[in-house]
C-alpha cells in the first residue's frame, strides 16, 4: 500500500475500535463559520487556521478540529448520554513548525454523560491507552480545573481574576500578570505616566468626538479601570506561593494528590478539585491504568485549544510529538448549548503517527 493508504487503513482500524466501544459515527462539515470559532478561541486562532470568505455565509475556516461541530450537533439534537466517533481531515497552519503536516487525519471519541464525569475521563484515557499499547509513547495528564479554581479563590478584584482566567493558556502573559498583581514588579514608565495623567483628570482632556476605534466613553472607562487596578492591594504572598507551587507540580498521580491535599489546607477551594482528582485516579485504576507511574503535570494543557476546563491528557513520542490528546470541556457545551449544558470529555488520535510508530510508513 502507499503511505497514504496505510494511514487511511490505520485510521479505519481506530474508527472501528471506537465504534466497537459504543460510539456512534458522525460527520462534520469541513468549512465552519469563523465567527463561532473566533468567539471561542479568540483572534489568536487566525495564526493557526486557514480562513476563507464565502459570498453567502461570510468568513469561514477549514476545520481546525472536530470538537466544536460535534458539540454543536449534540446540543442541537443529541441523546443523553451519548458517545460519538469521527474520522476525517483537520487543517492547521504550521508556519513556525517546519515538517509538521498542514492537513492530516484525526480519529476521535467523545462522551456526553452527566452521571459520572470521572468515570468518563477514565474511559476515554484507558480506551486510547489500549489502542496505543506496545507503541513507544509516554502518557502525561493534567487538570485545567486546578489552576482555574486557584485563580477564582484569589483575594483580589474580579477584574484581575478575569484577566488571569483569560490568559491561563498563555503562560508567559499569565506569569507577567501574576507578578504585576502581586507587586513583584514595578509598573512600566509608560504605565506610570498614564496613571499620573489619569489621576490628574485625563478624562476631561478627551474631546467629545474621538477619531479611532474607541469612543470617548470607552477610553474613560478604560482609564478608570487602570486607576482602580493600580489602587488595588497586591495578591497575598501566601496565595502567590500556592500558585507557584501548583504550576511546578509534576510527578506520579498519587504524589500529586498528596501535594494537592497539603495546598488545600491554605486554599480550601482546591479541596473539591482534589476530591475529583482522587475519584478520577480510582476510576483509572479500575480500568487497569497503572496510576502509580502515570505522570501528572499541573501546567499540562496550557498550550492546547482553549476549551479544556478539567482533565487533560496526551500521549507523546520521545521527540514530544503528540500521538493522541484530549480532555474535558464542560463549559464549551454550555456556551454552545443555548442555555443547556452537559459534562463532556473526548480525545483524538493521529493515525499517521500511529502508522509511523508501527513501522508501516
Automatic annotation (TrEMBL):
Domain of life: Bacteria
Residues the record lists as binding L-histidine: 65-67, 92, 106, 110, 302, 307-308
Keyword Glycosyltransferase set for record: yes
UniProt-recorded Gene Ontology molecular function terms: glycosyltransferase activity
Every Aminoacyl-transfer RNA synthetases class-II family profile domain range: 1-361
UniProtKB keywords: Glycosyltransferase, Transferase
One of the Pfam families matching this protein, by short name: tRNA-synt_His
PANTHER family associated with the record: HISTIDINE--TRNA LIGASE, HISTIDYL-TRNA SYNTHETASE
Assembly: Homodimer.
Protein name, entry field: Histidine--tRNA ligase
Organism field: Neogemmobacter tilapiae
